[in-house]
Amino acid sequence: MTIVTGKTEARRRLQPGSSGLLRNIWKHRADYAYVLPAIAVMLIVIAYPIYYTVELSFFKTPPGLQLRDKSFIGLDNYTAILTSQVFWKVTLNTLIWTIASTFVAFVLGFAAALALHREFIGRGVLRAILIIPWVISAVAASYIWKWIYHSDFGIIGAVLVGLGLADRPPNFIDNVSTVLPSLIVVNIWREFPFAMIMMMAGLQTVPDQLLRAAEVDGANAWQRFWHVTFPHLRNVSTVTILLLAVANFNSFIIPWIMTGGGPSNASHIWITHIYELAFGRQRWGVASAYSVLLFLMLMVLGYFYVRALAGNERKEGGA
Amino acid sequence: MSTIAETVPQRPTRRRMRVDGWRWAGRIFLVFMLLYTALPMIWMLITSIKSGFAAMQFPPQWWPDEPTLASYQKLLDPQNSVGQDFLRFFWNSLYVSTVTTILSVIVAVPAAYAFSRFRFPGRNFLFFTVLLRNMFPAVIFLVPLFILMRAIGLVNTHGSLILTYLTFGLPLAIWLLKGFYDNIPVQLEQAARIDGATRFQAFILIVMPLSTPGIIATAIYSFIGAWNEYIYAYTFLSKNEQLTLPVGIQRFFSENTTDFPGLMAASFMMSVPVVVLFLLLQRYFVRALTEGAVKH
């Protein structure tokens, strides 16, 4: 309760002339009780960790979690990160991973949603099957694909050899040049259904009358899609792409289980790298500094996310 | 006049041809997606009914010469040490996921209702703060949360997981439910109030039943998220008897790296509950997204 009013008081100072605000808060005091449980959980599990991470990032820390012996070293952790070669390698991997996964998953999901929009026999079954990869655990997915990519007994290798396309089964995940694309295929397998569900939901909001009107006016299928359907889906698309991008940027399980970041960092992305620094090499200070940098980048994405959501809100208000 | 009469019948046929082209492209694409989605899962099932020896052959047996359910029997046999562990992990996952689901519905429903109905100062700010949680990766919170959990004595308990999982589910849950409440006319509640119901009664009797699909969707989302969560469970729990399925399976198979039939059987068993749950309730989920998240 106090925290909530503290925040709003801070806002009050930003808005001069709203002297009735305190009375307004008091008048609405019962309303806060509804949101209080949610806010309280959020504060414990979010605000405190963020504060602590920022603090640790300025300290040199001993290994082990007895963090009493830490010593203040200013920005040394940050300079150490930005001058290391691994940082740039991992950043490039993260960019490739995030952009490729997001783009392909969105396009596949959107196309599947469009193809499933028309009524046909077996549509419900097909839709259900396509959603399954999104529902099952990423750990299970990682093991399934690890087995499929297996360098000796993997099915893809066997098919390639059987078709005469390769002399011996190729090694997908122990190879510096193929490991990242191979993992991206797994990630897309798991994520396109999310884009599909979102876009299916979005497609239902496109008014049929408009489509029919366009058809009467002689618009072909592509024109109807481009001039009627797509503009209606702009908001959903933005939100979907942002959610996918954030999820991909933050993904951990697939690279961690399938490769652990190897071989020679070829499949390390930011999160796996931070995890290894913290829990593998116990360099808490450096890992925290990494987290703060990550946090700053996410704030940029977050800005667009909130703007997209706020756009939806405004539309709702107007409707 | 005659020229028009001649051109009119032509136009529909030409248009139908074009539409058919798109429709065929759609069908071919769907077949491709079906293969991409289903083949890995089919291969998982086929491998899980092979013997360890049959799985390690090149070229592979496309269909096992001697299909066997041995892997499943081993996992489900409480006498066997593997089965004992697996069933315990399964129970742990079920317990953590169920409690998380119940708590997140209890917390999300009033919050979403307030964000939808009340116009208290700071509402938008708080709403977006809650949503921003989605932006942050688990790893950022891992070290401080571990220390926090140790300080309040929750390390190596399921409580640490439940508290953490609550915060994943909440943002989307609140967002979805808020969309639902926005769509329920206030007049319905007002009518109930005029008839003498308190605000709480109006909420329970009018609003709750109307938002059932949203609540079900929220519950599915929380359950699946908790069931599949890996990184916190991997960090917070170290005692074997407390592990949840994803971590338990990973730990088990890092010791038995070549038992692929067993691994595939375990992956399958781990997927069954969430897939069944989702398939049973998916129409609520899609409806909730339509009405909640993406309406205009």
Features:
heterodimer, A: 319 residues, mainly alpha, MetI-like fold, two-stranded antiparallel ribbon, 15 helices, 2 strands, disordered N terminus, B: 296 residues, 2 domains, 13 helices, 0% strand, globular
Radius of gyration of chain A (Å): 25 Å
Main sheet record of chain B:
none
CATH fold label of the largest domain in chain B: MetI-like fold
Q: Architecture of the largest domain in chain A, CATH level 2?
A: Orthogonal Bundle
The stretches of 5 or more residues of chain A where confidence is low (pLDDT under 50) are 1-17
CATH-wise, what's the superfamily of the largest domain in chain B? MetI-like
Enter the CATH topology name of the largest domain in chain A. Answer: MetI-like fold
The total count of helices of chain A amounts to: 15
Morphology of chain A: flat
Tell me, rounded to a whole number, the average pLDDT of chain B. 81
Counting helices, strands and paired strands, the structural category of chain A is mainly alpha
Mean pLDDT of chain A: 82
Helical content of chain A stands at over 70%
Strand content of chain B: under 5%
Number of domains of chain A: 2
Rg of chain B: 26 Å
Point out poorly predicted stretches of chain B: 1-13
Give the H and E element order of chain B.
HHHHHHHHHHHHH
Overall number of domains of chain B: 2
Helicity range of chain B: over 70%
N-to-C span of chain B: 45 Å
Descriptive account of the structure:
The complex is a heterodimer of chains A (319) and B (296). Chain A is mostly helical and 319 residues long. Chain A has two domains: 45 residues, no CATH class; 189 residues, MetI-like fold, CATH 1.10.3720. In chain A, 73% of the residues lie in helices and 1% in strands. Chain A has 15 helices and two strands. In chain A, strands 1-2 form a two-stranded antiparallel ribbon. In chain A, helix 5 runs parallel beside helix 9 and helix 5 packs antiparallel against helix 12. The longest helix of chain A has 35 residues. Chain B folds into two domains: 47 residues; 219 residues, MetI-like fold (Orthogonal Bundle). In chain B, helix 4 runs parallel beside helix 7 and helix 8 packs across helix 9. Chain B is globular and about 75 Å long. Chains A and B meet through helix 1, helix 2, helix 3, helix 5 and helix 6 of A and helix 1, helix 4, helix 5, helix 6 and helix 7 of B.
